[in-house]
Amino acid sequence: MSTLSVIYTLWLRQVKRYLRSRARIIGSLGQPLLFLVALGFGFGPIYQRAGGGDYMQFLAPGVIAMGILFTAVFSGIEIIWDRQFGFLKETLVAPVSRFHIMIGRTLGGATVASLQGVIVFMIAIIAGFRPAHYIMLPLALIFVFLIAILFTALGTAIASVLEDMQGFQLTMNFLVMPLFFLSGALFPLDGLPTAMIRVAQIDPLSYGVDGIRGTLVGGAHFGLAVDFLVLSMITALFLALGSYLFSKIQI
Amino acid sequence: MGKIIDVHDLVRDFGEFTAVNDISFSVARGEIFAFLGPNGAGKTTTIKMLTTLLTPTSGKIRLNDHDPVTEQNKVRRSFGIVFQDPSLDDELTAYENMQFHGMLYRVPSKIRKERIKELLTFVELWDRRDSLVKQFSGGMKRRLEIARGLVHHPKILFLDEPTLGLDPQTRNRIWSYIKDLNQKEKMTVFFTTHYMEEASRVANRIAIIDKGTIIAEGSPKKLKEQTNTSSLEDAFLALTSQAIREESSGSIDHMRMARKMWKR
Question: Which of the residues A79, A199, A207, A234 has the least number of beta carbons within 10 Å of its own beta carbon?
Fold first, then answer.
């Protein structure tokens, strides 16, 4: 009971902060919107001519995954900020275990990232995206929450070893961007050069994109069961890694 | 009365560098104790070890009859702390900061509400309880931090340079709260400061640390007599020598600067 209340406290704090910062919500929607409009409408005709069908239908799940990925990693990375100036120091001297702090924060960050995913989904609807089966929405939400936890935990792990925000840019350019661009969010994985396929196979986001796409429009590349299994395993792994590194933080 | 803090042969190394070199001291229950020293003397490192944030390389600490290394949670429940850097959540209101603290320390809801009201009223922030902390001035933030550190009824309050960068009015007010708490709640206070006249006015007893070693200890009066000086500042300078201390500028300092720039 008391363990839950600690986790709840930290979860609540993350969610409150998010709901309060309208600028952040709106700001972080700019990028997905741009991708949907520029790529969705820009490549739509040529994709159609190449026989791929409606590109917006293909792209929207990828952009939803992108929104989640960025928000989740950022939520995790925020620990760097908090570490010297914020709530973190205050929580580390409180009579609670670091593991519970990490879990509470991560669930909070994941909730925020999931909300972001839902908002991008609604924008996609406005842009013309139509899910094939609305009945599959709850299943899609499971995938949404899984990748949200996975990447918040990854962000936490990274933030636990970075000294300051200098490393943030490095993380964005050499980890987050490749994770997104090589995941099959923007293009079908069928018929790619072998090297590209291999890379996509070790990119956890590929399975997230595939899961969301499979549930919303059908035609999963790896299959939903594989997506779910792989994502669950990697999420467990990153949670373990994140809490281990977080427990080693020295203030 | 008994000792609430008891430290024996405490050492902390960082690689080659010894930040705290074999110090021993104790603080009596109900005492106001000042821990003074130039920059880089080992003050903050000592506080971190007392408050479970850092494990000692060797030596023994008892805090409220518990060991910070093996009984972390019991020690953590015993103290409240105001850090050198602000540790409030700017995006939350004053009340929420207090509330979260109470929830983390598992103060039952009913007691928590009463205690928060009592403390916010005490530091004269009750009327501003629903304002976001980012709208507060430096002095208001400090007052809130002090109030927050007290929500769980600690036996000891640690204050690491609580009046740094505040105007004389605010500093005065903060010390009058602290003396009040010390008298009313019989709370032990352990603080550091660079303002010597504050220390000599408020503290019952003072320890001076330099280069990781305690070089003098006693009442302000005793320290002045010992060095044959008329003010604590002169006594401090006589004891620690006047060379200016080099402090390495670590990543924390860079972040401090970056943060100031980011926040206009």
Answer: A199
